[in-house]
Design a protein that fits this description.
The protein is 18% helix and 45% strand. By secondary structure, it is α+β, with helices and mostly antiparallel strands. The protein has 2 domains: 31 residues; 110 residues, Macroglobulin (MG2) domain (Immunoglobulin-like, Sandwich). The protein has a 5-stranded antiparallel beta sheet, with no helix packed on it. It has a 3-stranded antiparallel beta sheet with strand order 4-7-8, with no helix packed on it. A hairpin with a 2-residue loop joins strand 5 and strand 6. The chain is globular, with a radius of gyration of 16 Å. The protein binds copper (II) ion (CU).
């Protein structure tokens, strides 16, 4: 019961913070949209959409669900080997917890054990191997 209440309260606080952030001039352009990031891979071959669970992301261990498609055709891209490394660029450190990637089919890959344990901007470095070598960087802002 108390855990549920805590979650509700922290979600509420997060929304209030974001709302005041959006009202400030210039803030929305510098802060990534919370919880959802879409990027092309370095080679341009892949399009990656990442959604955090919970959304917006909270500080601590979260899940990030990836949807990967072929940039040229838009088809789901299965069979990729993915390694995900969280990195906090402002402080030059990663996490001791290693994220686990579980392919779900239909181009979906669930990444668990993503330990964003500090407030601030985190990169998720995505290294792709297997049928192609590629990489992408997703960025999330942790309140
Ligand atoms: Cu840090």
């Amino acid at each position: 019961m108390s855990a549920d209440l805590g979650t509700t309260m922290s979600t509420h606080r997060t929304r209030s913070t974001l709302l005041s952030c959006w009202l400030a001039v210039g803030c929305s352009s510098s802060v990534p949209a919370p919880g959802v990031e879409a990027v092309d891979s370095a080679s341009g071959a892949l399009h990656v959409v990442a959604r955090t669970v919970p959304n917006p992301p909270t500080r601590g261990t979260i899940e990030v669900d990836l949807e990967i498609t072929d940039s040229a055709t838009g088809s789901p891209r299965d069979g990729l080997t993915l390694a995900v490394t969280p990195w906090m660029p402002s402080m030059d450190h990663g996490t001791s917890l290693v994220p686990t990637v579980a392919p779900q089919g239909q181009g979906l890959y669930d990444v668990t054990n993503v330990d964003l344990f500090m407030s601030g901007t985190w990169d998720l470095n995505l290294a792709v191997s297997g049928p192609l070598l590629d990489n992408a960087v997703l960025q999330f802002s942790i309140p």
